[in-house]
Design a protein that fits this description.
binds adenosine-5'-diphosphate, 5 strands
């Protein structure tokens, strides 16, 4: 069985993330969405809330799991015995940042392969940052959030 980890901050999970997840599920039998956080960097939603939002968005998908983690992504891969990391790419800037991380990860953990999935054209402008800005200013962010999740029900941390 092929399993991948889809790591990220997911603060919060957006339809752009969901689009990457759907593509990843065509390649892998199981995808573990892993909410990475570190205690020194305060997020908008706390990690547990981010996990809850993702569980709500993906509850109908039996081959998706959600967890949170604080260690290096490759250490999470080794701990779970997973050989693939999925990351989404929107722009050339994403590619430049992501390829450096992927190369460092490859050096540290040669058995772990990073797979890049391009953003769907209609999602490439969507980011958690935009969603947070909309929420902070009291706007309606629901169009950027997967169906079934009422983002206004979740309290910022
Ligand atoms: P991080 O802080 O680790 O970059 P994010 O939650 O911002 O975490 O993103 C997680 C992953 O999803 C990253 O690989 C990012 O490039 C990708 N991603 C974010 N938004 C989109 C989008 N709209 N389309 C495709 N990929 C995306």
């Amino acid at each position: 069985m092929r399993t991948a980890i889809f790591p990220g901050s997911f603060d919060p999970f957006t339809i752009g993330h969901y689009d990457v997840l759907e593509s990843a599920l065509k390649l892998f039998d199981k995808v573990i969405i892993a909410v990475g956080y570190n205690s020194t960097k305060q997020g908008y939603f706390d990690p547990q809330t981010r996990v809850e939002i993702i569980r709500k968005a993906t509850g109908h998908l039996s081959n998706v799991e959600v967890c949170s983690y604080t260690e290096l992504t490759i250490d999470l891969c080794n701990r779970l015995g997973v050989e693939y990391i999925v990351r989404g790419l929107r722009t050339t800037t994403d590619f430049e940042l992501e390829s450096v991380i992927a190369q460092a990860n490859k050096k540290m953990a040669p058995g772990v392969t990073t797979v890049f999935i391009p953003a769907g054209q209609e999602y490439s402008f969507i980011s958690s940052t935009v969603v947070r800005d909309v929420l902070i200013h009291g706007g309606d962010a629901s169009m950027f959030i997967p169906k079934g999740v009422d983002i206004n029900n979740y309290m910022a941390g």
